[in-house]
Amino acid sequence: MAIKIKHHIKKHCAFACALTLILAFGLFCIYLCVVWNGMYRLPRHIARGPHPVSLASPMPPVTYPEEVRALYITASTAYSPRMEDIVRLIKASEGDYAPNAVVIDIQDATGRVVMDDEMRMLVRQLRFLKIFPIARVVAFQNNAVAKANPSWAIQLASGALWRDNGGRYWLDASNKKAWEYVAGISRDAIKAGFAEINLDYFRFPSEGVANAVYPFWSEAVGTKPDVIVSVAKYLKQTLKGEYPDVRLTADIFGYTFMRKYDMGIGQSAPALAAVLDDVCPMIYPSHYSTGNFNFKNPAEHPYEVMAQTLAKGKEIFADAGVPFTNIRPWVQDFDMGAVYTPFMVREQMRAIADAGLKSQWLIWNPRNKYREAIFMDAGDAVVLKN
Fold this sequence. Notes:
Blueprint: H1 2-36, E1 69-73, H2 75-78, H3 82-92, E2 101-105, H4 117-128, E3 132-138, H5 143-148, H6 176-192, E4 196-200, H7 224-242, E5 247-253, H8 269-273, E6 278-282, H9 302-320, E7 330-332, H10 342-354, E8 361-364
Parallel strand pairs: 1-2, 1-8, 2-3, 3-4, 4-5, 5-6, 7-8
């Protein structure tokens, strides 16, 4: 009888232990799901040492570089351990090609703003490490805001929301509510510690516009370039009025350096350069057409495309009476049209310096996987072509 009781107790103990393990494993899985989905994230500490950074501590001072050399960072990378690798890469780089800044998406692909305590902590850590923090703000192409405020957005004649050829919604750039929205998210980024606002999609749409109906814009309001310059002046007055030291820049099509007209998107490079701290032409060789600069495949000629685009831009700026100074081009670090080696990325940087501009640039790599060879000091190493 005693043996049967002992056996019975052992069976119950084994069952209880198994149940406990199953419950513990289930709770652990729930925890992982919560962390993975961003409902709660443990804070990372990039900055180590005797002066820890926290949200309760004073905002670390920011160092404004004379020449900004920035790496593009998606919001998902900013929240991942890979961000620590990027920081280590920046801090380990030396010389004329060393990056000193990051430009971080503060919106996800839908247009939803990503600005929580972890992002604020990251910006403080970047400032502590003397890495210049730039917030990339997507201005007028915004699915989330267009859906939430359809009256702000470009429409079809039926009243439904208009989409470009990529299926994306756009706000009417003439709508001052849209201006206030851009100013608002920029203000939030500045409060979080970002020292520069980089405006992207700062224009009217370029594709599939034949059936687009603008609820606010018309020729009576002003030309498209007039509208975009007015937005730039509004943001400058509004944001610099509150934060005099903040820098304002805008991404513009590379072709704006080759054409005096706005190509229907409202971007005039000289007019925007006269208002903003820098304009950032997206001079990606892969985006040039066959025959540009007499090249069958412009992507295979990164130095020549960058150099000749800047030369054309210099002429356009001179005709407009605007100094050709506050220019910070985007350079290509992705495989499109050609396999881009570190040497090809560096050739674009060399063309910028040879054009007489500051040695400053922004690098677009959509995967955020940056190779050390790109940033080696020219006096220390030879960048291989393969």
